């Protein structure tokens, strides 16, 4: 296949979804995509691994988000109007590029299965113990499938509608908890130096901030792609701030008991009590979780469907929506036997596996593209 033909394929494939979003909408979409599971499971994972300084780990880990945003935007400038699945073939060749694209598609398919399982475990474990977990997970996947069928524009507008509500409810919960917080639990800060919190940052670095690789699928749909990096960086900063605030709330509320909590923010909401008219506001935390996780699952769902359509060179991505949804549902059961096993996987082997796909692979693509550019210009000695 000659270069001209490859470029024509790129133009055809991007027309799989004719919807357009702004860079601002992309930033809004990425916020819940990364942070929603971070505020639920990450505090306890980090507290177990790091100790008192776990609230600092998201600060160091945020460097990964900034880095991957820069890499994705640099590659997009080199290969405009194409996603990472498409330009992988142009950079490293057809067969290696196909393998790289398949690896990315499988990764987000598997990751979406993990997220859907977390959602199902939380709802069934905390609110609906008699409801079959497959029914809970399947119903959300069905709603997400309808959103994905509408394309990236529907996902962007959904995020624009839900994210302000999520942020407002989150701020409300934090404000209502202020009187219960004990700032003495933070002290001493960095008693054992920076190393524990730096090592702890590997978890959010690989498992959460690396998810900004998704923007490589969204950049071709932007009406103002020149602002893509700016709003992705802003989104990453807000995610870091939210994670730090969440971890501080958990630390100052639970102290040394933080590592033993499964859903810290959900348990924290049970401490809220003002008179006889405001108590048991776990439903508020659940509302944050459901709205945010809907956006996250829909985003992963969309990436898998669009990526697979580009990989297979299909004319319409919609034919893959329900088969992909069925695969995700299967992976929710196959991926882990319980929430504890899933949390253990995410906190141990997970960061290294996630970092390999979300950091190492794009770095290899960027390095290869740079070497080829230098060779073509005659600057490579």
Describe this structure in words.
The protein is mostly helical and 381 residues long. It has a single domain, classed as Up-down Bundle (Amino acid/polyamine transporter I), CATH 1.20.1740.10. The chain is 72% helix and 1% strand. The protein has helices at 3-14, 23-38, 42-50, 57-78, 84-92, 94-126, 133-149, 152-177, 195-200, 202-207, 215-218, 228-254, 264-269, 282-312, 321-335, 339-347, 350-377, and strands at residues 273-274, 278-279. It has a two-stranded antiparallel sheet with strand order 1-2. The two termini are 29 Å apart.
Give a brief outline of the structure.
By secondary structure, this protein is an all-alpha fold. It has helices at 3-14, 23-38, 42-50, 57-78, 84-92, 94-126, 133-149, 152-177, 195-200, 202-207, 215-218, 228-254, 264-269, 282-312, 321-335, 339-347, 350-377; strands at residues 273-274, 278-279.
């Amino acid at each position: 296949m000659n270069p001209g033909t490859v470029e024509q394929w790129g133009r055809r494939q991007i027309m799989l979804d004719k919807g357009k979003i702004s860079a601002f909408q992309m930033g809004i979409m990425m916020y819940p995509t990364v942070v929603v599971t971070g505020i639920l499971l990450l505090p306890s994972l980090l507290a177990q691994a790091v100790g008192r300084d776990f609230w600092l780990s998201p600060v160091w880990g945020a460097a990964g988000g900034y880095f991957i945003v820069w890499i994705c935007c640099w590659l997009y400038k080199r290969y405009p109007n194409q996603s990472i699945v498409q330009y992988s073939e142009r950079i490293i060749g057809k067969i290696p590029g196909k393998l790289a694209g398949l690896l990315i598609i499988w990764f987000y398919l598997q990751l979406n299965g993990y997220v859907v399982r977390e959602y199902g475990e939380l709802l069934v474990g905390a609110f609906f113990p008699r409801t079959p977990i497959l029914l809970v997970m399947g119903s959300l996947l069905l709603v997400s499938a309808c959103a994905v069928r509408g394309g990236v524009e529907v996902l962007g507008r959904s995020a624009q509608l839900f994210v302000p509500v999520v942020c407002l409810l989150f701020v409300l919960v934090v404000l209502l908890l202020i009187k219960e917080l004990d700032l003495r639990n933070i002290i001493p800060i960095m008693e054992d130096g920076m190393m524990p919190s730096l090592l702890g940052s590997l978890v959010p670095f690989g498992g959460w901030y690396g998810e900004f690789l998704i923007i490589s699928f969204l950049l071709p749909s932007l009406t103002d792609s020149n602002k893509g990096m700016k709003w992705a960086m802003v989104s990453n900063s807000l995610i870091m701030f939210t994670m730090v605030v969440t971890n501080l709330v958990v630390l100052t509320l639970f102290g040394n008991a933080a590592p033993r909590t499964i859903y810290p923010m959900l348990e924290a909401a049970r401490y809220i009590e003002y008179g006889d008219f405001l108590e048991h506001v776990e439903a508020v935390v659940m509302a944050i979780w459901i709205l945010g996780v809907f956006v996250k699952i829909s985003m992963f769902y969309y990436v898998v469907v669009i990526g697979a359509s580009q990989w297979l060179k299909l004319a319409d991505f919609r034919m893959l929506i329900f088969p992909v949804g069925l695969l995700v549902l299967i992976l929710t059961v196959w991926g882990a036997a319980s929430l504890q096993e899933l949390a253990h996987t995410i906190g141990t082997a997970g960061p290294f596996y996630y970092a390999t796909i979300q950091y190492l692979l794009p770095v290899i693509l960027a390095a290869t593209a740079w070497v080829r550019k230098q060779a073509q210009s005659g600057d490579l000695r």
